[in-house]
Amino acid sequence: MRITIAILLTALLLVACSSQYEYQTSPEITDSETADLGDLSWQEAYAKLLREYNERGANLFFILHDFDQSGIPELIVIGEYADNIYDVTYTFRNGEIKQLEYDEGVSIAEFALATRTALAVPPNNLTGILTFANSAAAGAFGTDTLYGHIIVDNGKLIIHNHGARLVDVWSLYELFDNFGRYTDNETLTPAIYTHTNWYINDNPVSSNEFRNVFISSCEIEKWLYPRRITEYILIFEQ
């Protein structure tokens, strides 16, 4: 099953990411990993940084999200810059903006900007951020969904857990014609549930155990959407 999930993840990310771009997390626009901003608030400091990005004319977006629930959100800057996919996350501590490192395999841009992918706030007051990648729909049987739970650990973004919701569509094909399109929900819904498997870190778990860490896309309370950097004034300078 570990190989199956890895193959599925690779396939979904190939769909999500355009092959014409290289992927980078190194800060080519900013001059330093740490910026001393004097007595500026985090709002003023982030606004100043976004102005600097905007002056370079890059096609970039930003997301504010409080990874560690400290009351001061991190600033994610993502998009396209110099024909590369740009992906950088900053934090504001003790009057300074600092760039967080990315552990191997961590990415945010591809989940924020690509099709069939998304970002969301984790359930159950967990810290970090959730990533989603959906496969193509299999008729009324739904889709496979791969999840990631990214947290901050000692100044670095790491993948804390990864999960998978996999639908056994082949068994459902044998039970229903026309991909289940003409089957009533009272019959189809429990059949889909019976033929759905949940995994955390490649280990099979119950649906309840899964929901303690991840959650289905239809139950998400707060999605995280990127805003163009030109919209920073709506957030910081009201």
Structure description:
The structure is a single chain. The protein has helices at 2-16, 42-55, 109-113, 169-175, 185-194, 207-211, 232-236; strands at 22-24, 34-36, 59-65, 74-81, 84-93, 96-99, 101-102, 117-120, 129-134, 145-153, 156-167, 196-200, 203-205, 227-228. Residues 2-23 and 29-34 have low confidence and may be disordered. The protein has one domain. 26% of the residues lie in helices and 33% in strands. The protein is of the alpha+beta class and 238 residues long. The longest helix is centred in the N-terminal third of the chain and has 15 residues, at 2-16.
Q: How is this structure best summarized?
A:
This protein has seven helices and 14 strands.
Low-confidence regions: 2-23, 29-34
Structural class: alpha+beta
The assembly state of the depicted protein chains is: single chain
* Total beta strand runs: 14
Question: What is the count of DSSP helices, taking H or I runs of 4+ residues?
Answer: 7
Annotation keywords:
238 residues, alpha+beta, seven-stranded mixed sheet, 14 strands, 33% strand, disordered N terminus
How do the helices and strands line up, and which of them pair or pack?
Elements (H helix, E strand, L loop, with lengths): L1 H15 L5 E3 L9 E3 L5 H14 L3 E7 L8 E8 L2 E10 L2 E4 L1 E2 L6 H5 L3 E4 L8 E6 L10 E9 L2 E12 L1 H7 L9 H10 L1 E5 L2 E3 L1 H5 L15 E2 L3 H5 L2
Parallel strand pairs: 1-5, 7-11
Antiparallel strand pairs: 2-6, 3-4, 3-14, 4-5, 5-6, 8-9, 9-10, 10-11, 11-12, 12-13
